[in-house]
């Protein structure tokens, strides 16, 4: 549904996006993940036709963003990072205006507004001025605005930023409920968002692609180290030094009685470690495996070096 | 056309849902009312004095002696007030981020510009229309000619349209409304001052400066003359302003 190839964007001398390529399949919720200033907003602005790319190609639903911008704009719903609201308008007037500029036929306008109000759960505030509603509702109006012309593709730039935890959950539920009908791409720097609602993600940093695919694919593409935490009654630095010598072990860290041992994927020196601990009489109290969670994965990818 | 009207409707609603339109219309009407009153008062006293002398009395002409100077005053008030009307057109949307909505919707840049331009023209019409009420008095108690009056209003409208085109251009340059108003005001003032410079200059320089001066072209209108030279002047002014706006927006998007 969305295909980006070799996308590059320069602002003067500043390289915001560099040779970015990825693909999003139809009906998926896709995350665009990266730290601040990674190029997420720039990428989305290019996809929506707000900014032209310096180089490369972007295709949305078969339309080239640069060759057929108006066709693309007709099928994309876009929530920019700063929600584009007119504070002096009521929610309904605003949605009517957006429906008109998105060229929803006059006969379908009322139905489109009603549907957007309903799917973004805005019934309780629809007659109020936008400047008087809460931040959470403003964000919802932003999403309703993106939905109004029933677009095939939804592009949401940091849809949950600045909201309180309850509102974040509400917005996430809302986005999940839109899955299927729409292909959704959302940007975030919050990992939980990706694991909770996305089918896959594209991770970028400093404008460069770090990884792209489903979460499992990303995990597999990164050279992951496995590890275990051993808790010993005694042992000290000597134990750490001896453990480092066990075949396969790459790294041993120690904090008080806990020893974190890491090894490359495929190796498994756990039995040797236990044997060593028993032989030396260190008093093995506990051993648990060191789980590699998405957060470590992300930090690893973003800090570079280990990308595919 | 539909999309232009959509944008224009939104702009008009914004003008009238905030105090801007009311404030501009109120101040404009109040000032024009004051000038009308003082010119009328002077005209009346002239009429009283000359009533004894039929030869001079015949020369009194309400169009020449009331409306001509009044239109001159109105043109200066428009110069001062229209930048305040146009300053927000693009600046506000840039600052609040709503340009992103406009530019990512299937509207052409021309549709957006013309919509906003049309909205300001409508407010200008309302401003001029309100002052038309003053003429109820002149028609009730005097005998002005309608045609030169309408020609004067046409001139003011065309001049205002040119001012708005300059204002919309500067609004597209900056996201700061004050800067946008200031630049517009400065430019218009410069065109006004050209009028003075031309009286000091001579030869070709004088005719060039005369041609460029915004107010020189208004004079004939206030005397009731509709000359195509002046029409062409104002319309090319409008076209140039809008064209530059279009170029600015296009180039910003491609930078």
Overall pLDDT confidence of chain A: 86
| Number of β-strand runs of chain B | 0
Strand content of chain A: 25-35%
Q: Helical segment tally of chain B?
A: 13
H and E order of chain B: HHHHHHHHHHHHH
Low-pLDDT windows of residues of chain B = none
Number of domains of chain A: 2
Radius of gyration of chain A: 25 Å
For the sheet with most strands of chain A, the description reads: 6 strands, mixed
What is the second-level CATH architecture of the largest domain in chain A?
3-Layer(aba) Sandwich
Helicity level of chain A: 25-40%
Multimeric organization? heterodimer
Cα Rg of chain B? 20 Å
Largest sheet of chain B: none
**What's the domain count of chain B?**
1
Any overview of this molecule?
With 308 residues, chain A is an alpha/beta fold. Chain A has two domains: 2-218, P-loop containing nucleotide triphosphate hydrolases (Rossmann fold), CATH 3.40.50; 225-291, Alpha-Beta Plaits, CATH 3.30.70. Chain A has eleven helices and 14 strands. In chain A, a hairpin with a 2-residue loop joins strand 4 (55-60) and strand 5. In chain A, helix 3 packs across helix 4 and helix 4 packs across helix 5 (135-147). The longest helix of chain A is centred in the middle third of the chain and has 14 residues, at 106-119. Chain A starts with a strand and ends in a 6-residue tail after the last helix. Chain B is mainly alpha-helical and 255 residues long. The longest helix of chain B is centred in the first third of the chain and has 32 residues, at 19-50. The A-B interface holds A 11, 45, 48-52, 70, 73-74, 76, 78, 80, 82-89, 93, 97-98, 100-103, 145 and B 2-3, 6-7, 10, 13-14, 17-18, 96-107, 253-255.
């Amino acid at each position: 549904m969305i295909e980006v190839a070799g996308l590059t964007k320069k602002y003067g001398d500043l390289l915001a996006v560099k040779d970015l390529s990825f693909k999003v399949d139809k009906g998926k919720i896709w995350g665009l993940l990266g730290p601040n200033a990674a190029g997420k907003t720039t990428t989305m602005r290019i996809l929506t036709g707000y900014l032209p790319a310096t180089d490369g190609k972007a295709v949305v639903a078969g339309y080239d963003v640069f060759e057929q911008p108006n066709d693309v704009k007709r099928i994309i719903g876009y929530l920019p990072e700063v929600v584009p609201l007119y504070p002096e308008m009521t929610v309904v007037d605003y949605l009517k205006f957006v429906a008109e500029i998105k060229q929803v036929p006059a006969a379908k306008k009322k139905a489109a507004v009603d549907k957007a109000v309903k799917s973004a759960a805005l019934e309780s505030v629809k007659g109020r001025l936008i400047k008087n509603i809460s931040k959470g509702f403003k964000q919802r109006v932003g999403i309703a605005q993106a939905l109004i012309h029933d677009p095939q593709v939804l592009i949401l730039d940091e849809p949950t930023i600045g909201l309180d935890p309850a509102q974040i959950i509400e917005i996430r539920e809302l986005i999940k409920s839109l899955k299927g009908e729409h292909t959704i791409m959302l940007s975030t720097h919050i990992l939980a968002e990706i694991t909770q609602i996305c089918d896959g993600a594209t991770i970028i940093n400093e404008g460069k692609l770090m990884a792209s695919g489903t979460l499992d694919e990303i995990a597999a593409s990164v050279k992951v180290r496995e590890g275990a935490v051993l808790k010993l009654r005694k042992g000290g630095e000597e134990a750490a030094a001896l453990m480092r010598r066990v075949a396969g072990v790459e790294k041993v860290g120690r904090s008080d009685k806990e020893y974190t041992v890491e090894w490359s994927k495929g190796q498994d020196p756990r039995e040797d470690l236990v044997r060593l601990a028993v032989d030396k009489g260190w008093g093995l109290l506990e051993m648990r495996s060191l789980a590699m969670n998405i957060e470590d994965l992300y930090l690893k990818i973003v800090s570079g070096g280990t990308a595919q | 056309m539909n999309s232009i009207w959509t944008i224009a409707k939104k702009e008009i609603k914004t003008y009238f849902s905030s105090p801007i339109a009311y404030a501009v219309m109120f101040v404009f009407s109040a000032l024009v009312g004051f000038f009308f009153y003082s010119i009328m008062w002077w005209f009346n006293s002239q009429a009283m004095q000359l009533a004894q002398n039929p030869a001079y009395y015949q020369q009194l002409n309400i169009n020449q002696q009331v409306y001509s100077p009044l239109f001159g005053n109105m043109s200066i008030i428009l110069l001062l007030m229209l930048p305040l009307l146009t300053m927000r057109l693009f600046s506000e949307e840039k600052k609040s981020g709503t340009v992103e909505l406009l530019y990512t919707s299937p509207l052409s840049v021309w549709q957006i510009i013309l919509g906003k331009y049309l909205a300001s023209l409508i407010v200008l019409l309302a401003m001029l229309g309100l002052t038309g009420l003053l003429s109820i008095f002149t028609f009730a108690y005097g005998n002005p000619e309608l045609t030169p009056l309408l020609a004067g209003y046409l001139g003011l409208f065309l001049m205002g349209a040119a001012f708005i085109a300059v204002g919309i251009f500067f609004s597209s340059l900056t996201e700061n409304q004050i800067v946008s108003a200031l630049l517009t005001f400065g430019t218009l003032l410069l065109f006004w001052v050209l009028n003075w410079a031309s009286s000091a200059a001579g030869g070709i320089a004088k005719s060039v400066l005369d041609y460029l001066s915004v107010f020189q072209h208004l004079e004939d209108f206030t005397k009731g003359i509709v000359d195509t030279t002046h029409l062409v002047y104002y319309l090319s002014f409008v076209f140039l302003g809008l064209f530059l706006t279009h170029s600015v927006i296009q180039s910003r998007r491609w930078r």
